[in-house]
Design brief:
Elements: E1 5-12, E2 21-28, E3 31-37, E4 46-49, E5 54-57, E6 59-61, E7 84-89, H1 104-111, H2 125-135, E8 140-143, E9 145-146, H3 147-155, H4 164-179, E10 184-188, H5 199-206, E11 214-218, H6 226-240, E12 243-246, H7 260-272, E13 277-281, E14 286-290, H8 304-312, H9 314-326, H10 334-338, E15 343-348, H11 358-365, H12 369-379, E16 384-389, H13 393-401, E17 405-407, H14 423-438, H15 444-451, H16 453-459, E18 475-478, E19 499-504, E20 507-511, E21 514-515
Parallel strand pairs: 1-4, 1-5, 6-7, 7-8, 9-10, 10-11, 11-12, 12-13, 13-17
Antiparallel strand pairs: 1-2, 2-3, 5-18, 14-16, 15-16, 18-19, 19-20, 20-21
The structure holds zinc ion.
Zinc ion (ZN) binds next to loops.
């Protein structure tokens, strides 16, 4: 028997929300074996002194886009440095698999808007996972399957309802991915091709989910259409009989600030009526997505080269001008809601334009802002992302404070470089620094619960999320007085301070910000029974 390890004298915040207590956490064979009142002497054990530190379960990022992280040559440390040990990927309707051979080129061109190129062979989720297993995981990997991906496989980018055959094909691919270990189905209803779907299609597909799966959604609108979009997600849960997660819940665009009062009440009421619906949030007032989301749906129902041709066509440009000025029913108009100076270019394929607002790019180029938007999209062949200053702090704090809200970074895929939204680097430390220590919005215990045991239960993350005997020793130790994110939108990449170490299955993976070199994460499959110690 190897010697046990004891993490001695830390302030243990166990993840369930109960009061923190100074304790010793005993670990053997990768699992917590005991949690005892802090002692002075630990016979026969390797001691890790944790006095002055908080010891908590490793954080669970319920909303990540780091599907490609295992396929990158360099380890992606953006989450581990925040104390995250598990990431749910495949969000917002985008998953790398399944990928049918017949759609391979079209899919690759489509994915370029969000992901750097990634190589793997085969078609099925199990083929992708064979490759990611081979490369290894920095954090635990919990994949969802994307509705947008399924739709593209069954019917391309077409702006219409699926035929019965196409809908059956989507269902078949979904069931196959679930059997191969997916945690559920995600949708992104502001993005093509998801935005072309009607509610019935989503109800039909969500009907394939088992009780241990869930449906997560970037809902159809987060501004002008926020309430009806929340209602749609609730309806999908009720009619499909599935569990629902509203992703990155927010009220976007000044005219819509304050609407989270209504939506949080709607969600509470739906729960009271038996729909298991919850939400997550990232702790920032700026959003981020691909720059092409500034274009109205009419531009986007064709392959990339045709989208680019439309952008260069004077008639289409007039259509764009009208759409941005007047809006389009059912479409989220980021430019209209936030203005040209409210959109900051964060990453582009060439790295030109990064860190400049569209208003500034227009000034730099000596053109009007609409022309600046078109030029960036064309030059970068749509491979560009943006930060959008769209939210009110009052909505962010209201959502975060709701007891049913979890934390998700929504960090965009690693590997592009550029200046991605600081949420990629600082989400979890920021909750603990700003909303616990500085503003007192949440207690330490409540904040940790939102990042650990609560998401473990909702997403059926097996044997993790809590410091308790029998569970896997994925743990983080941090200094509650020093933990700090760095939130600079124009220079976002600095890692957080105050995380002492991160442990995965009993082994330290990161110490004082330094990666010790081993990919200790694992691929997870959803727990169909209890998740341990419930
Ligand atoms: Zn999203």
């Amino acid at each position: 028997m190897p010697e046990p390890t004891v993490i001695a004298g830390g302030l243990v915040v166990d993840g369930t929300g109960v009061s923190a207590a100074q304790a010793d956490v005993w670990i053997a064979d990768g699992r917590v074996t005991d949690v005892q009142p802090a002692a002075d002497y630990h016979a026969g054990a390797t001691v890790i002194d944790a006095q002055g530190l908080v010891v908590a379960p490793g954080f669970i990022d319920v909303h990540s886009h780091a599907d490609n992280a295992p396929l990158l040559p360099e380890p992606d440390l953006t989450k581990l440095r925040q104390g995250v040990t598990t990431e749910v990927v495949g969000n917002c309707g985008f998953s790398l698999a399944p990928r049918l051979a017949s759609r391979r080129e079209q899919f690759a061109a489509f994915l370029q808007r969000l992901f750097p190129p990634a190589r793997w062979e085969g078609e099925r989720l199990s083929d992708l996972l064979a490759e990611t297993d081979r490369r290894g995981y920095v954090t635990n990997y919990a994949p969802l399957v994307g509705h947008g991906t399924l739709r593209l496989m069954a019917m391309g980018m077409e702006a219409r309802e699926p035929t019965a055959t196409e809908l059956r094909e989507m269902g078949r691919l979904l069931r196959q991915a679930l059997e191969e270990g997916a945690f559920g189905l995600s949708s992104g209803l502001i993005y093509p091709p998801g935005l072309f779907s009607r509610t019935d299609e989503l109800i039909e597909l969500a009907g394939h989910l088992s009780p241990h799966h869930l449906y997560t959604s970037h809902i159809r609108g987060e501004g002008a259409h926020l309430e009806e979009s929340v209602a749609e997600a609730i309806r999908i849960g009720r009619e499909a009989g599935c569990r629902v997660q509203i992703s990155h819940h927010k009220a976007a665009g000044r005219p819509h600030w304050g609407k989270t009062r209504t939506t949080l009440a709607m969600l509470a009421e739906a729960r009271a009526r038996g729909v298991e619906v919850d939400q997550d949030v990232y702790p920032y007032t700026a959003a981020s997505t691909m720059l092409a989301a500034c274009l109205p749906p009419a531009f986007l129902d064709v392959p990339e080269p045709d989208v680019l041709r439309r952008l260069e066509d004077p008639d289409w440009r007039d259509r764009l001008r009208r759409a941005l000025a007047e809006g389009v029913p059912g479409w989220e108009n980021h430019v209209g809601d936030c203005g040209w100076d409210g959109i900051l270019i964060s990453s582009t394929a060439s790295h030109q334009f990064e860190g400049r607002t569209l208003a500034e790019v227009a000034g730099d180029l000596g053109v009007e802002p609409l022309e600046a938007l078109v030029r960036v999209l064309v030059r970068e062949r749509l491979r560009a992302s943006m930060v959008i200053f769209s939210m009110d702090e009052a909505d962010v704090t209201r959502v975060l404070a709701d007891p049913r809200t979890m934390v998700g970074s929504d960090g965009l895929p690693p590997g592009f470089g550029g200046r991605p939204h600081p949420r990629l680097f600082g989400t979890f430390p920021r909750v603990l620094a700003r909303y616990v220590r500085e503003l007192g919005l949440l207690s330490l215990e409540e904040a940790v619960r939102k990042m650990t045991w609560q998401p473990a239960q909702k997403f059926r993350i097996p044997e993790r999320g809590r410091v308790a005997p029998g569970l896997i020793a994925d743990l983080v130790a941090f200094d509650r007085d020093r933990i700090q994110d760095h939130c600079d939108y124009r220079d976002p990449g600095r890692p957080p301070d105050g995380i002492a170490w991160v442990m995965q299955a009993g082994q330290v993976a990161l110490e004082q910000g330094r990666f010790l070199g081993e990919r200790l994460g694992r691929r997870l499959e959803p727990a169909s029974g209890g998740i341990g110690q419930e």
